[in-house]
Every structure is written in structure tokens, then in C-alpha cells.
Amino acid sequence: MRNYIIKRFIYSIIIAWGILTVTFILLRVGPSSAVDRYILNFAAKGQNVESVKQAIEARYGLDKPLYEQYFLYMGNLLQGNWGWSLSTSMPVMDLIASHWIYSFQLILLATIFAIFVGVGLGIISAVKQNTKFDYTISVLSFIGISIPGFWLGLMLIMVFAVQFGVFKTYYDTSYPVWSLENLRQLILPVITLGTGELAGYVRYTRSSMLDNLRKEFVTTARAKGLPEHLVIGKHVLSNAVLPLVTIIMFDLGSVVFGGAYLTEIVFGIPGLGRVSFSAIFANDYPVVVAITLIGTFLVLIINLATDILYTYLDPRIRYD
């Protein structure tokens, strides 16, 4: 296992380097420049645009050839210097440090909500197969999978914030992060982000449970007179959980890179998704590259954690 982890860690570094390089190049060869937003302001004041552009590019090293910019950035990155945000005029590390907590709390709560509710409903639906409850949950799960997250978020805002006034129409950053007030205003974003995953977990859990309920070891356990809750909880669920781990961990990676970003934009949550979205339109290269690198490492770590978790859930799995 130790050799496998070391090998995967080396592969992760290579993959992260490749993604970082491609992102860096694509951003730098785009049709617009990071200094454009500054030029417009100085042009409105009647200053010489060309001289201003040269001064800004020289200050941030944008006047150098692309390969020099790349090696300079990689060298600074290895030294812990993630660059300077051009759109906010602050170090990238400070910008990330002040916004990551908003993304973390949203992803954490949405994941917990989706796992507990989705897996729980999936188990009950499988146990009560072909009943009204099973049919109702199946229909609702198909609807949940089909609904786009951003549309669901907008509908929740219109109904519960605009029409009924139960929640605010915006995210209030004045509340402490770990407070009941902040938890309350995260209800709609958590539902928005977690609904798609929840619906998927219902379907996967139900399918995996039904597959194991039909196997001979379940019949044997019941023939021995074991209580039904032990048959379901100890024998069936323990065997059905392995494919669920794969789906849950895969969804966690996709949430980090996609779903949370859109949810933050819809609800105005100042997390890394919204910061990255603003940085893309402002051509803020250091911020976009840094957040892309963070997301890449998170996905790679999640994949590695999934493989390690397999060996504990199923002792038959070994990585040689």
C-alpha cells in the first residue's frame, strides 16, 4: 500500500503540473489581456494608453516572452509565492485564505445532506420495493436528477425569498461563518447543490441494495433466523456500500469543480467559485491558475482516498 500511495502521489504531481501548464498557456494566449481593465480607466482620464499598458505589463512581468513568464511563475509557485491578484490588488494566497471557508461550508453541508437523505431513502425504497413509497421516491429522484442546479436555485429564491420572504435574496457575510444565522441562510444553497447528488444516491443505493437482497447469503441469513434489521444493516448494506463509495467520492470531485461554483454565483456566496468566475472575466491569470490548481489537487486527493478506503471496506482488494 505504501508503494502504491507513493506512486499515485507522483502521478498526481505530474497530472497537476500538466493541468497547470495547459491552463497557464490558454489564459495567456487569449485575445484579451489582464491590463485591459486598467487601460479603460486610464483612457477615460485622458492618459496615454500605450505608456500605461507598458508600465503595467513591466510591473507584472507580462512584457516578457511566454516561456519566461511560465518559468518565472513556476519558480515562484515552488517557493510558495502564488502571485498577485491583478483585479483585487492583493496576494493570491490572501485572497484564497479569505474566501475558501465559504466554499468549504457549502460543499460540506451539501454533501452531508445528500448522503444521509439520499442513502437513507434508497435503503427504504429497496426494502419496500414495488410499494407506493418506492414508486414515489423513484419518480422524485428522476425529477431531481433532471433539474439543472442553477434553475432550481433561482426557483427557490423566487418562492421562498421573494414570494414568502422566509429567506434573504442575498448571502449576508456579516454573520459569523459558524453561527445559526449563517446556517439558516445556507439552507437554500445546500438544497440546490445537494438535490442532484441526493437523487442520484437514491437510485444507486436502491439498485445496489436490490442486487444484494437477491443473493444467496441473504437467504441464508434469514434462514438462520436473524432479525431483518441485522440482515439489512450488517449483511446487505455492508456489501452494497462499495459501489456507493465510488459514486459519492466521484460526485464530491465534480461538486468541487462544478456544482458549487454555479451555486455560489446564483446565491452570491463569496466562495472560490465566485472568485474564480470574476477572475476569468477580469483576465486575472494568477487567481484562475491558483484556484484551478487547488481544485485539481482536491480531486486527485479524493481519488486516492477512495482507493485507500476500498481496502478497508473490502479486504479482498489489494494494490500490488
Shape: globular
CATH level 4 superfamily of the domain at 93-313: MetI-like
Overall mean pLDDT stands at 82
Question: Low-confidence stretches at least 5 residues in length (pLDDT < 50)?
Answer: none
* Strand fraction: under 5%
Radius of gyration from the alpha-carbon trace, in angstroms: 25 Å
The side-by-side strand order for the widest beta sheet comes to 1-2
CATH class of the domain at 93-313: Mainly Alpha
Beginning-to-end CA distance, first to last residue: 7 Å
Order of helices and strands: HHHHEEHHHHHHHHH
* Number of DSSP helical runs: 13
The secondary-structure class comes to mainly alpha
- What is the CATH topology descriptor of the domain at 93-313? MetI-like fold
Helix percent reads over 70%
Number of strands: 2
Q: How would a crystallographer describe the biggest sheet?
A: 2 strands, antiparallel
Name given to the CATH architecture of the domain at 93-313: Orthogonal Bundle
Question: How would you describe the overall organization of this protein?
Answer:
The chain has helices spanning 2-28, 36-44, 49-60, 66-78, 92-127, 132-146, 149-163, 180-185, 187-213, 216-223, 228-267, 272-281, 285-313, and strands at 84-85, 90-91. With 320 residues, the protein is an all-alpha fold. The model has no long low-confidence stretch (mean pLDDT 82). The chain starts with a helix and ends in a 7-residue tail after the last helix. It contains 13 helices and 2 strands. Helix content is 77%, strand content 1%. The chain has a domain at 93-313: MetI-like (MetI-like fold).
